[in-house]
Amino acid sequence: MRRRPDYLAHVILLFGVLIFIFPIWLMFAGATQDAGAINRGDISLLPRLSHLGVFMRALTYNGGVKGGVPVWHMLLISLAMALAIAAGKIVISLLSAFAVSFFRFPFRQVAFWIIFITLMLPVEVRIIPTYSVMASLHLVNSFTGLTMPLIASATATLLFRQVFVAVPDELVEAAKMDGAGPMRFLVDILIPVTSANLAALFVILFVYGWNQYLWPLLVATDPRYQTVILGIVQMIGVDQLIQWNMVMATTCLAILPPVLVVVLMQRWFVKGLAETDK
Amino acid sequence: MAVLELHGLRKEFAGQTILHGLDLRLDDGEMLVIVGASGCGKSTLLRLIAGLELPSGGQIMLDGAQITERDPAARDIAMVFQNYALYPHMSVFQNMAYGLKLRHQSKEEINRRVTEAAELLGITPLLARKPRELSGGQRQRVAMGRAIVREPKLFLFDEPLSNLDARLRVQMRGEIRRLQQRLGITSLYVTHDQVEAMTMADRLIVMHQGVAAQIATPMEVFARPANIYVAGFIGAPSMNFCTGRLVGAGDEAALGFGAQVRLPGRFISASGNVTIGVRPEHLMLDPAGSPMTIDLIEPLGSECLVHGKLADDTAITMRLPGDRPAHDHLTISLPPSHLHVFDTESGVRLEAIS
Ligand SMILES: Nc1ncnc2c1ncn2[C@@H]1O[C@H](COP(=O)(O)OP(=O)(O)OP(=O)(O)O)[C@@H](O)[C@H]1O
Ligand SMILES: [Mg+2]
């Protein structure tokens, strides 16, 4: 049954897309203008193609502060942090969800609820005690200090638990009869079977890690651990004339990795989702 | 090749007894079919034997070895699940090879066994496919293949055909039976399809509320059901039952609807109350018989099922040739040689004393 295209829906969709794309376009166009022009407020929506070199220059721009690290370094720190957080969270929550979903052990419910309660305590809420713990462990201004407190969280555990509960019991039992121990089952069956969900979660967690602001602001005071998000804020906070074109170019660079991750992984997890449907 | 013995096997879930001490012996190469109503503990029994649950009491012996608490993987038992439980991300080949791989078989051995099994099941062209690219019947075969390649001592089947359409079910049922006989592997097969049970079984267990109501060959179960439950469960449409009392020397019964029937011999019952069973195909039209009012006629083509009531409201079903009976009112009689006699109080079958 073919239906004729719904023009109204398409118009509304297009309108929505325009609303979302506009700030990004503005950023891109702005990056190619003169710093002065933006400060005066006459920003053109037409990018000046001759000024595309600004993106290369932005990579080595140090934020206009003395002793600042170049943007490429900030990007690397952000990337490492986001990857570590996403990977760390997935490993930890995969294992804990595996434990509470497939094993019967004493205080299983208690364990589950304790994990659940941590949902109500994100880093922002427990930031002072967390900072003091990190300080006493001498982890301030270290990569561990930057990532570890953000890794510990229950969101992913809960999501995985929901995914695991939906795995048919018979699949678990078939694996048991085939002679798969718990870890074999996890690696050979469970992870491949839930890979679509893993990919989706990875995307969410990567973006979450990439966008962290408050915690890095506190714990990464040394420029060597400065993330690109902090870097951008710092660029706006300088006393001299703000280099708006540099700020916008850096912002453009800063949204590239999450966009790439979404685009690359999306293909993969949509394929995965189609596969699980039988 | 193996002998399975169960001794007083019991299972409780949260204080509720699901299996009440089951004793059973499966001979080498035998196909034993378990039938019973939903929830009577059929799957539970299989899962205990497979090691997926631990029994609350009793013992399981395979070839004389105690396996009651042994790990499922170490039992040398393969199971075919109702929804096949194929690994969705693995190809047919990998699905079949997985158990062998975990048992550290050599590559050549795995290849040989999988190829052979695939040949046997006619799924060789499918080896590279994923389960989602298979039809229900093909998945069923792969699930069988996964069990066969293990070369286990015992096969367990839990309603393996119930997700297939009727035609395929008939075909697969023959295939499974042939295969099982050819491989000579001792098998336990759960179904609630009567025809499947009758046609596939060497012996049949009729389960009722966690007890084996009867264990015998299918023909024996059909011809001489051990109690009222089995009599009513096996055979479609179900056997008719009328209550009555033994009279005379115990070779006649006065039935509730007013008739007095001759019995196939002399019977003794403690209370004198008996339940007479007769299959729908054995009821006879008889001008001198008891009147039956018809309330539903189901034509089946060459014959029809007539549902109705006797004088005392006993429901009765009769199988007649042709597409409908000639009259609205039938008069029927019960042929002595086809009557089953049960004790009303205990439900147990009574045998004629010679
Ligand atoms: N893990 C369990 N916990 C509690 N009760 C259970 C459990 N497994 C089964 N039961 C109960 O045991 C009884 C028998 O279940 P079982 O699955 O063996 O029935 P079945 O004969 O296989 O029925 P069906 O024909 O519907 O598959 C049911 O009443 C069920 O509720
Ligand atoms: Mg069952």
Task: Give structural attributes.
heterodimer, A: 278 residues, mainly alpha, MetI-like fold, 2 domains, B: 354 residues, alpha+beta, six-stranded mixed beta sheet, 8 helices, binds adenosine-5'-triphosphate, binds magnesium ion
At a glance:
The complex is a heterodimer of chains A (278) and B (354). Chain A is mainly alpha-helical.
What does this structure look like?
The complex is a heterodimer of chains A (278) and B (354). Chain A is an all-alpha fold. Chain A folds into two domains: 1-52, no CATH class; 61-277, Orthogonal Bundle (MetI-like fold), CATH 1.10.3720. Chain A has helices spanning 7-31, 35-40, 54-60, 71-102, 108-117, 127-136, 143-151, 155-165, 169-178, 182-193, 195-210, 214-219, 228-236, 244-276. The mean pLDDT of chain A is 87. Chain B is an alpha+beta fold and 354 residues long. Chain B has eight helices and 19 strands. Chain B has helices spanning 42-50, 92-102, 107-121, 136-149, 166-183, 194-200, 218-223, 228-233, and strands at 4-13, 16-26, 31-36, 57-62, 65-66, 77-80, 154-158, 186-190, 203-208, 211-216, 240-247, 252-255, 260-262, 273-278, 284-299, 303-309, 315-321, 329-333, 340-343. Chain B has a six-stranded mixed β-sheet with strand order 6-7-8-3-9-10, sandwiched between helices. In chain B, strands 13-12-11-14-19 form a five-stranded antiparallel β-sheet. In chain B, strand 9 (203-208) and strand 10 (211-216) form a beta hairpin. In chain B, helix 3 (107-121) crosses helix 4 (136-149). Classes of the chains: A mainly alpha (278), B alpha+beta (354). At the A-B interface, helix 9 and helix 10 of A face strand 6 and helix 2 of B. Bound molecules: adenosine-5'-triphosphate and magnesium ion (MG).
Strand content of chain B: 25-35%
Q: Can you list the strand order of the major beta sheet of chain B?
A: 6-7-8-3-9-10
Share of helix among residues of chain B? 10-25%
Largest sheet of chain B: 6 strands, mixed
Which fold does the CATH topology of the largest domain in chain A refer to? MetI-like fold
Order of helices and strands of chain B: EEEHEEEHHHEHEHEEHHEEEEEEEEE
Number of strands of chain B: 19
Structural class by helix and strand composition of chain A: mainly alpha
CATH superfamily of the largest domain in chain A: MetI-like
Number of beta strands of chain A: 0
Name the average pLDDT of chain A. 87
